[in-house]
Amino acid sequence: MSHYGISPLTTAAALCLIWARLAGAQTSVNTDPVRAEALSKQGIELLHSGRYPEAEGVLRQALTIREAYLSSNSLELATALNDLGAAMHYQARLGEAEALYRRAIQIFAANPHSAADQLSATVNLASIYREQQHIAKAGELYARLLKELEKPGVNELTAATVLNDYGLFLKVKGDRDGAARAFERCLEIRERLLKPGDSALIGVRSSLADLLAARGDRARSEALFRRALQDCQQFHGASSGHCASPLNGLGIALMHAGAHKEAEALLQRALVIFEQSRGVNHPAVAAVLNNLGTLAEARGDHKSAERYLTSALGIWTAAFGMNHQDTASACSNLAAMHLRRRHFDKAEQLYRQALAIDEKVLGPEHEKAGLDWNNLGALYFAQKRLPEASAAFERSVAIYERAFGAGDPRVAVVLVNLANQRSRNKEYADALGLYKRALDIYEQHPGSEIQVAAAAFENYAVLSRKFNDFAEAEKAQALAMRIRVRTAIIRDKASAFLP
What we know:
This protein is mainly α.
């Protein structure tokens, strides 16, 4: 059976923003400045507690007061603009946030004594471009920020904020090793300088956990998500906006482990928190809906899966437009559901849409394009369009080998698919060679096999016996049995997992 992947998306605590410092209250008979500062402090507290719509209202009042009595180049005004921009940013109102950040940066840049504030606002603007996947614009700003970090006297926590956001940018570009280094450096700084319950520390743990899950290190990923969730619940309360990301990430981890009931409970909690703190049309809500759809599909609940996945696609398209990686992922996941239901025309349209987006946004050699080609190959294989399936799988193998190396288990997944195609096309010699390559990779990476590979290696054993290679047949049969036993044990243990 051909394997096509659904990659749940997670939305980590990405906006670990540095707020520009609050200016001291001006001494005046007019009480407006005092009122403005009190509102600003209240708004920052609301932001840190994850109550973003409330924070927006309070910070907007503070800005209105300051615009009435401050000059247009006042640093205090720039601070208010940056803080309100952050409130908009958290609610995915990216156009409004960008305009506010730009105004703040312009004021900070004109003042030689506000370098730290300018750095903070620039991180915020760069993260806007990263989320919109304007790679060139974001890359230019991150390059500038990294140069600033080389200067003496940069505050370590400011450096940590830059590193966290730069890690998220590298992840979007597909540089997982670079992203891991950035997150690890950020985590080391924050663990050393911040209290355990600080929202920035919870955020980077979630960011690193999300990346580790994508790299296959599920044990450490789950441990980090659990630690982030524990600290969030202890220091901020179970309904805090900061708890939604670790809930979402931990839900994905349990879903992969087969603990579907526990996973659904965590994902539903994350959905409620994101909807309450950021609004029902926020991209973070779409991420959880996407994961709930993936889970529903895995449980055979096709009606719920289609509802969740269609809603996720609608939110992402409205927020980012069609040319965005998250939109492409939603198309792929919805296509996978249609493929399982043998709605081939709908599946092909969505898979091709995902491929076109990923090639335009990320480039034709990006690993996501490799996944898209593998998915198309699975569709063609299911339709017995074997020449087209062969071409798609070969393209996927080539991309994956360049992205991960020829000996990576992700390459083995597609090699098995290609071997299945060769076998069905009665090209048995080629099929044997491809199965052997995949088996050799899995032997070098024990425990990395996916459950559906068991049937493929059983097929390899049959072919090997047909060609009198009994030793290879025994190896293939043993690997198939190991996969079936290991995945059965994992599913049995998963039922004991608790959030």
